[in-house]
Each structure stands twice: as structure tokens, then as C-alpha cells.
Give the backbone structure.
Amino acid sequence: MRKKVIAGNWKMNKLPNEAISFIEELENYVKDSENEVVICAPYTDLFYALNMAQGTNIKIGAQNMNWEEKGAYTGEVSGEMLKSIGVEYVIIGHSERRAYYNETDETVNKKLKKALSLELKPIVCVGESLEQRESGDAKTIVTTQTKLALEGLTNKEVEDTIIAYEPIWAIGTGKTATKEDANETIKWIREEVAKNYGEEVANKVIIQYGGSVKSSNAKELFEMSDIDGGLVGGASLVAEEFAKIVNYNK
Ligand code: PGA
């Protein structure tokens, strides 16, 4: 049985004081959840969020990292830096980073390898645009992104990777993929993993759905056979709403 992982992606939102009060509030709501609860916060919030989350079942993640250890890379943050303060998760290759900051399948692969070597849990994002979905290319796009992201990883590393299927047209738009479409696409991703790493690995990989997940649709999505939780943007900004998503099965 795969665990459900519900991760909030705050994107560029929340000052430290807001992060602190959010975690304080969330803690009570989710303390009895058997689902994995993760908050991916901006760099400037991480230290505060980690302090607040100590002794709770809330895990803290970053939203990006560099694949180099250190050096002349102005403005960048390394995996070692994240690890040194106790960060456990990191989002890699979010579609906003691919679209606005030139991330490619190649940089995604480098970051993924680096994160895994440091035992940071990566949440690697794949997903097609509306145009690609409408022209029937979704399967090729997501399976190719998956293959290239995971290239060169060991079976164990693939098992330790979380994949988030996020159709770009569903992110922040209020449009959610139907539960059937989301499940089917995630099955394509799982088949791609099986093709390259075997059935056993594929059956263990956690694959989330992301794109306008909210408390009103979380249950129907997360109850599908292949959807192992979600990556939640907008609806993760309010503790009570995010908690309802985490507690979808209560
Ligand atoms: P959304 O964002 O839930 O606001 O659509 C999801 C994401 O970008 O991870």
C-alpha cells in the first residue's frame, strides 16, 4: 500500500510570521493524520517553519535547489544548504520554474540526482499544457518528461522519488483534471517507470496529482487507484482548508 503524501506548495507567499502562525494552526488539525504532511515554503521561511514543525508530523520542504554544492552562483541555494538546516523535501522542476526560469529536463535530472544523493526527498513535477492535451500529445509529453527526469537513477533512487503530475492548464486556474483523466495519466507515468525500472519499483513510486486541488475535490481524486495524494498550491495557503485536504479520508 503506497502512502498518501499531501504537500502544500506556498510558491512566493508568506512572510516568516505568517509561516509560523500557519504551522501552529495546522499542527492541531493534522496531528492524527496517517498521511504524510509536507509544507514547501519559500527559502526565507524555512528556518522558522522548521522550528515550528519540530515535534509535529509536519515535514518541511523547499521549492527549488541548485545541483552544485557551492561556488559562484549568485542567488542560488544548494541542496547541502537545505539539508544543513533540516529540510526534508524539495520540489524539483515545477512547471512555473520550467516556464519562467529556463529549467529543462536536463537541469531537472541534475537536481534530482543531487537531492537524492543528499537524502532530500524530491517531488519532481511533470505535466502537459492545454495545447498538448488537446492535440493528443499528453501521454508523450508526460512519459518523456518522466523518463528524462529519472534518467541514470538507481531503482532505489526511483523508489525514493515522488512524482507530481500537474497538468499546466489546471494550475491556479480553478480547473481540475477529472479524476478519471488524472488517474489515467498517472497510470501512463507508472507504466513508463515500470518500463525502465520494473513493476516492483513502479508499484512503490508515489505519484501525486496537482492542479487546483481543494477540499471539495481532494477526496474523489485521492481515492483513485493510482493517485497517491497531491501537490497543492492556492488551497495550501489557508491552514483550515489545507487541513481538510490532508484529512480528506476522515
Ligand atoms: P494550484 O497549484 O493548486 O494553485 O493549482 C498547484 C501547484 O502549482 O503545485
Q: What stands out?
A: The first strand starts at residue 5 and ends at 9. The chain has twelve helices and eight strands. Residues 9, 166, 171-172, 210-213, 231-235 surround 2-phosphoglycolic acid (CB under 6 Å). The beta strands are 5-9, 36-40, 58-62, 89-92, 121-126, 162-165, 206-210, 229-232.
